[in-house]
Amino acid sequence: MASTLYAHLATPTLPSRKLSSLSCPTMFHSALSFSISPIGTTKGKHCSLPKVVCNAQSAPAAVNLAPGTPVRPTSILVVGATGTLGRQVVRRALDEGYDVRCLVRPRPAPADFLRDWGATVVNADLSKPETIPATLVGVHTVIDCATGRPEEPIKTVDWEGKVALIQCAKAMGIQKFIFFSIHNCDKHPEVPLMEIKHCTEKFLRDSGLNHVVIRLCGFMQGLIGQYAVPILEEKSVWGTDAPTRIAYMDTQDIARLTFIALRNENINGKLLTFAGPRAWTTQEVITLCERLAGQDANVTTVPVSVLRFTRQLTRLFEWTNDVADRLAFSEVLTSDTVFSVPMAETYNLLGVDAKDVSSLEKYLQDYFTNILKKLKDLKAQSKQTDIFF
């Protein structure tokens, strides 16, 4: 059970098989099929991930030599549009005048807020490759912000779904593909999600698509639910005893820099890493939240050794393997590592002033100022409506 992700995703008995038969609109005059076959090595590294091969065969009976309708450069498809980063990408794209289409899985609660903003919502599922082609018709650029849900096997969406998306994008002539990855994913092959991200980077590069890969360190927005809200509600805040440092970045800044990179033709094919101005430990974030909230946090510390033991325990059972895979990611995030990079060269490449990128202090200060003001106003309104007999 202690194998790497490559072995985890492709068992020795995996035969060459059809993943799906995808039908394209007749305007493309081709029949697409996606098949999986094992591969042996990649450049400089053993890899047993299944390679997906797209076979496109022309249909001689349906030849149309007339020019097709040009695809506008402003037409984009955002995959994972309802997520923390995806919704900011959609919001930014609409503000900048892009024609935005959002790929959203069918769900009981429809993503009406995306429609209210002015985006077009199309239903599809990366775990069902046959639903992908129709979403790409008339699209110039794909921005992939998606990741699997916690209850799903990691490889279903983050590997098999992304492979199908990339292959279909290539077959249907998508002009540019933006893929969000994880910083240092190439240095942690023992973590399934990180190795999947690294493998997807290589798969995208080898596909021949015009692309940009953006590695991220951490989202400031995630700290609100993890630390800020529990402190305000006087609930337990969970932390670890590890000195991990993460350079969190506001997803609004990530979205803004992404579209600058999208429009810069000199960045095509490059790998960028976005990081915030400073790397923070868990304890430093908690201390900052305590100061801004004006109250102490009830901190419950989980030793890294407990995470390691829990991961080994869940590896013993097949039905808990996915839990173990996610615990492996947690273990890396709680190790003695730094998730940050110098950004001076990236800012220079993008033509961005470092002062325009939000700091964590400013982000959290704005949050606590707004939320405390609202709480104060609610308290005042409550007193005004009290009735005494």
Please provide a written account of the structure.
The protein is of the alpha/beta class. It is 39% helix and 20% strand. It has helices at residues 5-9, 84-95, 112-117, 133-136, 154-171, 192-207, 222-232, 251-263, 282-293, 304-314, 321-333, 344-350, 360-384; strands spanning 17-23, 30-38, 41-42, 45-46, 50-58, 75-79, 99-104, 120-123, 141-144, 176-182, 211-216, 236-240, 245-246, 271-274, 298-302, 338-339. A seven-stranded parallel β-sheet has the order 8-7-6-9-10-11-14, with helices on both faces. A three-stranded antiparallel β-sheet has the order 1-2-5, with helices on one face. Helix 9 packs parallel to helix 13 (360-384). The protein starts with a helix and ends in a 5-residue tail after the last helix. The model is unreliable at 1-66, 309-325 and 382-389 (pLDDT under 50).
Distance between the termini: 70 Å
- Sheet with the most strands? 7 strands, parallel
Strand content: 15-25%
Helix coverage percent of residues? 25-40%
Overall mean pLDDT stands at 77
What is the global morphology?
Answer: globular
Q: Could you name the ranges where pLDDT drops below 50 across 5 or more consecutive residues?
A: 1-66, 309-325, 382-389
Rg over C-alpha atoms, rounded to the nearest angstrom:
23 Å
| SSE order | HEEEEEEHEHEHEHEHEHEEHEHEHHEHH
Tally of contiguous helical segments: 13
Judged by helices, strands and strand pairing, the structural class is alpha/beta
